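Input record (one chain):
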Amino acid sequence: MTRNVNVAVIGGGVMGASILYNLSTKGIKDSVLLERDTLGSGSTGRSSGLIRMHYSTKVNAELSWKSFPYFLNFDELIGQPKPQFIRTGFIAIAGPESKEALLNNVAIQQEVGIDTHIIDLKEAREIAPGFHLTDEESFAWEPQSGHGDPSGTAMAYIRGAEDLGAKVILKSPVQKIELKKNKVFAVHTEKETFETPIAVIATGPWSSQFLSHLGISLPLTATRHEVFLIKRNDNLLSNHPSGADMSNMTYFRPEGNDMTLVGNGNREHIVDPENYNPKPSMDYLEDVWLRLSKRIPSIAEGEYFTGYAGLYTSTPDTHPILDQIDGIDGLYICTGFSGHGFKLAPAVGVCMAELITEGHSSFVDISSLKSSRFSEGKLNQISYDFRVIG
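The corresponding structure, as predicted from the sequence alone:
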């Protein structure tokens, strides 16, 4: 069966969903999203859900800041029931070796308009009373940040897009993007062909696979990352903010009334997204739990609840690729978020829709996220590995 559509978005995670919705708001109603499994079944469904704005480059800081209103007011801005958002605040903790980087980051964030500031030790102890903190450390505080529901957000965007006339087809893995004279001509699944002038690759860990079939090579790797939940001893620590600890290389947030989610991004394994272990490793649990207990001593008395492993799509500079593929008319790519996709997704969807319909993004300047930056040696410079902080 063959259908004609204006745009085919490949990938049903939060990025594909946001792109589909934002294209629909620009009048492109005859569009389709093709998902290999179910909505959010890839990286989105295994995201930690952390929402913070602490970045060391203007582009990521601005993408996160302009995404933030959507998490607060999704119902007003999108017209769909608001997915869960829990405000906890976010504290970034840096040792002496990272103090300058922390100060520079906060200056960039404040320039963008982010509600963040440096706090002293007394304030940090008031915000995080169960933490071990010292006067040698520096602290940045985002009072509005917290965590949300990645899968719920993707589904809400999909409902909005469908209300505007877009189509979503699940359990429909794309087998091929067909080109004619260096232009997108069709997207093929096992059962259907969608003739279209525009295809958007928003396939996360599977992006390299799609690009390789077209003879395109970009430095995208699928990497496995683990998180787990600890049930706290409520008598020792009733609650705490979300945060990132650069000294002990952990990130964390509360979950419910008595649990803590913890992760760490400096342990990466390149994996096949079709075949990887979705469960946490015992040596990882022991290592990261010990690191977390250096910052939150009472967490050592907690109990393991559950854990899981998900996939990042990583780039050398931990920044995404938002671009039209050079030399192929109508082919766009949105991938490589290195673990940061969920918190940036609302703004990214707007930017990609602008790029596709207008030829450039005015919502946020995404020129530093072109795919050509790798071959040109123009990587985004970061102060520390942001995969560490979720």
